[in-house]
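User: Fold this, then the next.

Assistant: Folding the first:
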Amino acid sequence: MKAKILAALREAEGYVSGQELCERFGVSRTAVWKAINQLKKDGYEIEAVQNRGYRIVGTPDILSENELSSIRKTDWIGKKIYYYDETDSTNVRASRLAEEGAEHGTLVVADQQDAGKGRRGRGWSSLPGTGIFMTLILKPELNPSNASMLTLVAAMAVAKGITRCTGMEAKIKWPNDIVINGKKVVGILTEMSAQMDYVNHIVVGIGINVNNESFPEEIAQNATSLLLQSGKRVNRAALIEAVWEEFEHYYDRFMAYQDLRDLRKEYDASLANKGQKVRVLDPKEPFDGVAQGITDRGELIVDTWEARKLVSSGEVSVRGIYGYV
């Protein structure tokens, strides 16, 4: 009920009468009054004027199932949302839900996570009220060998969503980080449960440094936040919605071919590594070269002094010669 009333207040250009809300949702005036008061307690600024009705005048940076549902414009993502004030890891939580039968497009969001998962098992902790920690459950008809490319699809969606919400240019550091001015602001981790030729489920986890005011000394050189880069606080719910709207668009184009042929040029245009000297940290034999973009399979093309090499994301890390990017 609260999400529906929030959506109705947002859609209105002015006041919405209590009677109109009653008739629209088939509830009593008392139920509407209670929902409005609960929304006020949640932090929403709602003006009530006798004989005119209710009007929303201020929306703080609130993360909740009601907030996310009330602004949702996506087609299939987020029809079911699980929100937690705190959880261990949204990827872990989403994997459990997927195994229990959660549907394609289910979204898991947390204000804080204390056992977040990064690439190669690295931890990812957080403070409340500062970041976005979310995971999307996918159950596509997809060959398991193509699943890793969804990380690149997600990267494109996040970069575009950030630019939409902040006006800042967000670039992709191949394959799974988003950077602004050479510093990491987003990490993406895609995990899969599959049979030999069948995907049980895929979870796409995204962590965004949004309103962080500082970082520990050991990562401050390479990490940043949208707040630190723009000087402005960003509404996290609005950014979440923007990311998933973009993801639906890119996902459909990816699934049409189950590769990146239709996205490759756009991805390369956002690639922070493109044309840059990079060091490929291959555990077998590290090497240096110049990144030239990606293949239709999402491999990084690296020209070395002796040959052109294709780098797969699951095998290695890539770093800039003179810094993080």
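Now the next one, as you asked:
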Amino acid sequence: MLWSFKKKKHPDFWITYLAHFDKKEKKNLHTSRFVALDSETTGFDIYKDRILSIGAVSIVGNEISVADTFEVYLKQSHFNPETVHIHGILQHGTKKKLSEEEALKQFLIYIKDSVLVAHHAIFDIKMINQSLNRMGLPNLKNKVIDTMELYADTRIKSNFIDKNIRYSLDDIAEAYAINLTDRHTAPGDALIAALIFLKTTTILRKSKYFKLEHYFLKSNRF
């Protein structure tokens, strides 16, 4: 008996997303589009927990584009009441919520091939990749930068400073006098990450040794 195996056809929105990477242009601080993002989740288990919301803002030419933002809330198939006091997102609240597939579709349309920026980025990207994998899709292809690693490099002046310190978003925001009014909301934390990105890259690029690609996280970390 002959068996024929057909390769699973990915949805059109994924094909469109992949097409943005055909350009293969080198990313740089001056001309590339960066997207600072944050996700609020039901917890920290990337397999069990789910994304509640994603917020993002774009950065082009070293400026935050307040007219180019993204915010989406997801229907909650998994609910953890213990985290509501942190993010304030209720399972049956008044905010319009989309299915996981529709939310991720809109997110891919928004980010295109932009460099993604987040604080403790590995967690956010792993959560998004898990959502994509549940839809039968591969992981994100975007380059990713962690603002914590950027900030750590601005702090390393000698071998006496521990390079393994994990600076929180609050630590850095306080150091840079960034307003924390919208802390623990996806759009608010995305904006804080964007401000940290601009402040840290302004410091780091003064060095002749600065190379943006040095801060791209390796794909095997996701």
